[in-house]
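Work Package 3 (structural annotation) set out to generate three-dimensional models for the target panel prioritized at the project kickoff. During this period the team completed the workflow that converts sequence records into C-alpha cells, so that structures can be stored uniformly alongside our sequence database. As a representative example, we reproduce one entry of 196 residues exactly as it appears in the project archive.
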Amino acid sequence: MILPIVAYGDPVLKRKATEIAKDYPKLKELIANMYETMYEASGVGLAAPQIGVSIRLFIIDASPFAEDEVLDEDEREQLKDFKHTFINPVILEESGDEWAFNEGCLSIPDVREDVFRHPNIKIEYYDENFKKQTHVLSGLSARVFQHEYDHIEGVLFTDKLSSLKKRLIKGKLTNISKGKIRVDYRMRFPLLKKKR
C-alpha cells in the first residue's frame, strides 16, 4: 500500500525515533509498504518518520545511482545491489575527510543543497529478519545511509546547511509545509486541514 509521505514542518520529522523489538506489530507489512511508497515517489531511501511512524527503521535501494556515468566502475557495481532494510541501526565509526554532495529529500521536494558527510562509516543494524549485521560503507552508499540515519535522529539535511543557505530557502520550506507545491506522489502536509 502506498502511504503519504510527511512533508517538511511536521513535528514527527524532528523527533528522535524509538527502537523497536522483533515482535513489532505488522513489521513485514510496514516494510513492504515503505518500499512500495519509496518506489512510487522515485526515491532511493525512506525512513519510518517520513510516513509518520517514529521508529528506528529505514530502507534504501541505491540501485538508480548505479547508472550514473560520473561514478567509477567499482562504486557503480557496489550501488547496483545496495538494497537493504535497516532496523535499530547504529553508526560505530565515521572516517575520512567530509565531502559535499547535492542532496534532496522526499519530505522536502524541489529543494536540493550540498551537504558535507564522512565518506566512510562502520555500521551495525538488524535486517528485516532481525538478524544482526555489521558493514563498512563508503562513498554514496555511506552518504545515503547517513541521510536516512539522520531522519531517525530527528535531523533533516536542511539542518546541516549554513545560516545563509537556510535563510535563502526559508520561503520554499514554508510553502512545502503549507502544501503549496506540486508533487507526483502522495504527501501529508502539516499545515493543511485536509490530507492529499
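The CA atoms of residues 41 and 185 lie 5 Å apart.
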